[in-house]
Amino acid sequence: MEKTWNNKAWFMVLPVLVLVAFSAVIPLMTVVNYSVQDTFGNNEFFWAGTDWYVEVLTSDRFWDALTRNLIFSAIILAIEIPLGIIIALNMPKKGLGVPVCLVLMALPLLIPWNVVGTIWQVFGRVDIGLLGHTLEALGINYNYVQNPMDAWVTLIVMDVWHWTSLVVLLCYAGLVSIPDAYYQAAKIDGASRWSVFRYIQLPKMKRVLLIAFLLRFMDSFMIYTEPFVVTGGGPGNSTTFLSIDLVKMAIGQFDLGPAAALSIIYFLIVLLLSWIFYTVMTTSDAQS
Q: Going by DSSP bridges, is the β-strand pair 37-39/45-47 parallel, antiparallel, or unpaired?
């Protein structure tokens, strides 16, 4: 018997497609248009071809910012993924402690990004900030405005405080979905806690870890608001990531052509790296 397909469900998706077209596709085409043209004002444009792309890709400014982005994302993933797993493993699975822990974990995620930056900007100040004043009282020379290492440590700790909860909640959702029969079988076999984690919990968390890994990579690689509020890209250019450099180029210098080319390159880098991570992790999951 031949199957008949009902495609009327696509009409339910049509409003979303229209919304995406107006909010994403059309602005993207505008950026592409700016990236291949030059203007001297008065709404007059001249064809530039790939000149802006070549200029961006051959500049040390771009590669330095890209290197800072990659280092920051690598540090964030190396800290937040293991830390999120550890916290999720130690959270209660039953009782009153479950809603309490879930609420506490969700609180940092509810704070807007600009507010997070403002909180840590004040928190790290030596004169009025609790962290900065405490470190100075302990004899530790800390100043995120003048010392690049202090600025990096502040941004990393801030991001870990803000976003580790996302990894925790995803891992916790994966853990609570494991049937009790697995744990009972492991207990009968006399499996150690490490064996339970290695052969039961970790395989069941692979898919949620993939989601957490991709979300945290994309967000950390595209970070803008928090470092802009806390350090403004300084001291010097030590915390000037691609997003901050893009805004400086587009708004500060009003170089629309190079800024548009940089934004397209930035978008393609995020898309490519996310696809690579997704492919590698799903392939290893399928082989296992």
A: antiparallel
Q: What is the rounded distance in angstroms from the CA atom of residue 38 to the CA atom of residue 45? A: 5
What's the total number of domains in the chain?
1
Asked whether the whole model's pTM tops 0.90, one would answer: no
Rounded Cα distance between 172 and 227, Å, is 29
- DSSP helix/strand/coil, 109: helix
Instruction: Check which CATH number belongs to the domain holding 238 and give it.
Output: 1.10.3720.10
Chain mean position to CA 131: 25
Please tell me the distance from the alpha carbon of residue 251 to that of residue 236, in angstroms, as a whole number.
Answer: 19
Instruction: Tell me how far apart the alpha carbons of residues 28 and 228 are, in angstroms, rounded to a whole number.
Output: 24
Residue range 8-54, pLDDT digits in tens: 777 788 888 888 777 777 788 888 888 888 877 677 778 888 889 99
Residue with tokens 């018997």: 1
Tokens encoding 227: 């470092």
> How many CA atoms within 13 Å lie on the side-chain side of 38?
9
